[in-house]
UniProtKB/TrEMBL annotation:
A GO cellular component entry from the record: Golgi membrane
Organism phylogeny: Eukaryota, Viridiplantae, Streptophyta, Embryophyta, Tracheophyta
TM spans (from-to): 136-156
Organism name: Populus trichocarpa (Western balsam poplar)
One Gene Ontology term of the molecular function aspect: glycosyltransferase activity
Membrane topology note: Single-pass type II membrane protein
Family statement drawn from the similarity comment of this UniProt entry: Belongs to the glycosyltransferase 47 family.
Locations listed in the record: Golgi apparatus membrane
UniProt protein name: Exostosin GT47 domain-containing protein
Nucleotide-binding is among the record's keywords: no
Residues in Exostosin GT47 domain copies: 1-64
Pfam families: Exostosin_GT47
Entry keywords, A to Z: Glycosyltransferase, Golgi apparatus, Membrane, Signal-anchor, Transferase, Transmembrane, Transmembrane helix
Amino acid sequence: MSQSQFCLQAPGDSLTRKSTFDSVLAGCIPVFFSPHTVYTQYEWFFPAGDVSEYSIYIDENALKTGNGSKRVVSIEEELFKIDREQVERMRSTVINLMPRLAYAHPNATDLGFQDAMDVALEALWAKRLKATHSAFFLKVITIVLLLQFRVKIILIGNS
């Protein structure tokens, strides 16, 4: 895998694939056949912008044959179309993704990059802040009011 330029990530029993992470951590450019293998499942860890900067996407339906028809797309032909400079740019982007997919040593401090835990916690925090802003603040206000009410009851009870 570490000697390969491209690593095919065909869907298996499920769309989640451990080899996706293994291949990226080995510096290999992943080739996906379903957008759900990474683009929709792991949006926290893989950039959602221009996915062609770090991966190849070939629609799995273009590879299927039926009723004696020929494939619409050849994986090999698609990969050979990519020039060397583009492969190097993609590999560079893949290398920059590596820290986001691995966990730093527990004793490491101030590494200068975000590891997988940092990325996940930041995404959860952002999601929490983004999701139902008003509902979140309503809960906070309710808790504060309840706490104030309890304090008043305690003070009245002690007087």
